[in-house]
Structure to design on (332 residues):
């Protein structure tokens, strides 16, 4: 699917829980040196993640998203009543039913907004952006709030318990779970103006790979795995197939890109996407070292941490389990 953009990001918001947890402390928690022969600094040296944030036990997915949404609304300089749609796009939700977006709408007093959730693994926020773009193009709404959160620490803790009860082979396919972190993020999206806005977005999905990265509950017991190498290799292939068309649609080349924002899982993927896109890694703001894999929050946090100027050319790249992949460009 290829869309020509009609929208711009008018405000970005983030929320980071206060608690910091080092990668080495998680490896100590599974006794990695004595049980598995892996040094405590393995995640730091091999993947590049030093620490991540972890939410408090009473914080829900909506809690993180509400904080970020309020931040984005303030950043955009709008009133909550101006919002025509609230979309929640995190992996974890407060409920199976109703949508978490209703909780966020009520908390932020965005009373004129319709509410719904979009879930597509680490790509959810970009799918929400494509949906909002279509709604604004059709003149259904003028402004939307996309909220998301990564609240993987409860899942991580469950898997740590299972890792400590199982042999080395069990750890091999689940070590990637220890790379995740918690965060909230949000975009305020409005109609494009003055040359700023989304110019192009390409999304591709290839089913059949769902068991490479998943978790679920069966009979009340969590199960899942994260086959990091197979997953990143396949997503790299999808990006390679998209890149030439992305630059063609945009009418840009790599030298013109001011910033590349991508979903971040570690230093290898960061380096791979630099090579595939031709954009120097110095133009790829990095958040994985201190935040880990924060799923749908990676791109918003990297944007929030970057001092961009209106008119900067921005490339977007990322993907999610299943598999899906996206590339696009916007003028900030």
């Amino acid at each position: 699917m290829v869309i020509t953009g009609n929208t711009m990001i008018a405000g970005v918001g983030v929320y980071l829980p206060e608690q910091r947890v080092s990668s080495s402390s998680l490896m100590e928690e599974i006794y990695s040196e004595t049980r598995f022969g892996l040094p405590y600094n393995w995640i730091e040296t091999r993947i590049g993640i030093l620490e991540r944030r972890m939410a408090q036990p009473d914080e829900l997915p909506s809690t993180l998203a509400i904080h970020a949404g309020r931040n984005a609304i303030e950043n955009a300089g709008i009133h909550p009543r101006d919002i025509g749609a609230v979309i929640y796009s995190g992996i974890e939700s407060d409920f199976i039913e109703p949508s978490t977006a209703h909780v966020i709408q009520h908390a932020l007093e965005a009373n004129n907004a319709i509410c719904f959730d979009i879930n597509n693994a680490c790509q959810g926020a970009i799918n929400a952006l494509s949906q909002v773009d279509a709604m604004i193009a059709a003149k259904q709404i003028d402004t939307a709030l996309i909220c998301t959160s990564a609240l993987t620490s409860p899942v991580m803790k469950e898997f740590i318990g299972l890792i400590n009860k199982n042999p080395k082979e069990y750890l091999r396919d689940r070590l990637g779970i220890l790379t995740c972190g918690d965060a909230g993020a949000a975009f305020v999206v409005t109609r494009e103006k003055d040359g700023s806005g989304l110019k192009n977005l390409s999304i591709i999905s290839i089913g059949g790979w769902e068991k490479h990265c998943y978790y679920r509950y069966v009979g009340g017991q969590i199960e899942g795995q994260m086959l990091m190498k197979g997953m990143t290799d396949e997503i790299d292939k999808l990006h390679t197939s998209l890149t030439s068309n992305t630059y063609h649609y945009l009418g840009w080349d790599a030298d013109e890109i001011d910033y590349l924002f991508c979903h971040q899982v570690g230093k290898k993927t960061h380096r791979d996407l630099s090579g595939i896109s031709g954009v120097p890694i110095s133009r790829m703001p990095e958040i994985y070292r201190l935040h880990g894999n924060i799923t749908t929050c990676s791109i918003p946090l990297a944007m929030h941490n970057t001092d961009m100027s209106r008119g900067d050319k921005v490339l977007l790249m990322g993907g999610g389990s299943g598999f899906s992949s996206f590339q696009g460009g916007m003028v900030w």
Observations:
- The two ends are 23 Å apart (CA to CA).
